[in-house]
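anyone seen this seq b4? input:
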Amino acid sequence: MNFIYNSEENKKQRLDSYLSEVLTDMSRSHIQGLIKDSNVLVNGKVVSKAGASLTDQDEITVNVPEPESIAIVPEDIPLDIVYEDNDVIVVNKPKGMVVHPANGHYSGTLVNALMYHCRDSLSGINGELRPGIVHRIDMDTTGLIIACKNDKAHNAVAAQLAEHSITRKYYALVYNNITEDEGTVDANIDRSRADRKMMAVCGSFEGKTAVTHYRVLERFPAQGSIRIPMCLVECRLDTGRTHQIRVHMSHIGHPLAGDEVYGIKKDAFKGQGQYLHAAVLGFTHPSTGERLTFEAPLPEYFAKTLSVLKKS
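predicted toks r here
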């Protein structure tokens, strides 16, 4: 990949900082690793220091090595299967389970479990690390996720995601009272410039379109050790960007309980993972054309917290 650095008023910039802005799919640490391993050239010369300064019209070449092939091993992990046929499988994912293998998580994922359960019946469209996976939810988000067993089903479900015809409703416990009963957050999302591991709301001409509709289901006043009012909300997604609900709700002043990335500092639920549950999933079956809708009850820890809030 080649880039030309165009500075503003001949302003210098760190090499790793600039590459973080143009290589939005890579973390800053990954970019720094590429530089350290002599995979980045400036004006034809290898640069091995991430903090090297760029000047106007510098030509930058980035060589990204082919990823090493990783054998993903099927694992006999119990699955809460809500629905299954020859085309699709719908699973109620527990908290703490990663959807597909990635750095630091090559075992214990939903993919490892699906590979064991489905044997060779998973779509190969998303490659060896994400067989059958059409969409995903965060590690600490619970609830419904669909996987496809063949490429035909995968293409059909992916098309529904693209045209926003899949129904996805989440329950979230958020801080601060929401004055209106319902509303919509229509704000683009991109990687945060301050921390590439985070996502952030950005300008209308940046990032990707992201739309979240929310509706207040119940309100809880400040009480006891929970000194901030809270709301249980239903969030319906038109789009499915990384961390979308967490970013959008935090953006409008209602961060999720337990969210250590986008949440509040004095969180009464710190260490429990964000209170977010994919409760409803609806789609048109890729073979029969029948409209299917599934619901998953709140996980025990979520339901228990609501019970405590209601009694106080």
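The chain has a mean pLDDT of 91. The two ends are 58 Å apart (CA to CA). kinda curious what u guys think
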